[in-house]
Specification:
By secondary structure, the chain is α/β, with parallel strands linked by helices. The chain is built from eight helices and eight strands. It is globular, with a radius of gyration of 16 Å.
Amino acid sequence: MSRPILEVIALGPRDAVAAQDGGADRLELVTDMAADGLTPPLETFTAVRDAVRIPVRVMLRAADGFSAGDAAALDALCDRARALAAEGASEFVLGFLTDDGRADLTAVAALADAIGPRARWTFHRAIDRAADRDALRKQLADLPGLDTYLTAGSASGVDDGLATLVAEAGRADDPGYEPRIMVGGGLQLKHLPVLRGAGISAFHIGGAARPDGWGGPVDAGAVRTWREALDA
């Protein structure tokens, strides 16, 4: 089995360096965790880009929730995505739903076009709020660049979503299930044996990397604990 991926949420260069030092393989770069993570300023991305060697996935999300907003809001977010891509961003995180819980293909396709066909991207935990997870995967199956679903298996977290995650991991050859499952959202060390046993190889932490909570920075030692657990 390949070495598992450990992705850590970073809010800026200090977090990014600590995550890298602790053994993170990748960063999810956001701002405003009070709104569950929004698109960071361009200058934050460039500072993080210059501070670390590991890949950086940048959040594309302008407001709390899973709606892309009106046409003007979507256009503005696409402009921000293009600006980030022009500065070297090549990996992103995004995901929007319609009012009835389906994937918002208009918004997602517009952003996929804005970042370009070579960019890689994660559809984030909007899948955990979808009316039908299987239908959402099939809606998105043909979009270029989608290589990961960030999911807890349930809107309430991994404790409740564990059975769903294991079941979906067993469908990797089914249409719409080819993208990697990255588990995040209430993920705890106790979950790792079951998830690793199911063949899941990507994991995402945020608060678990911050012993002092979201008011404090990423701690390299906390990240290292996860790295060692995944490599055991």
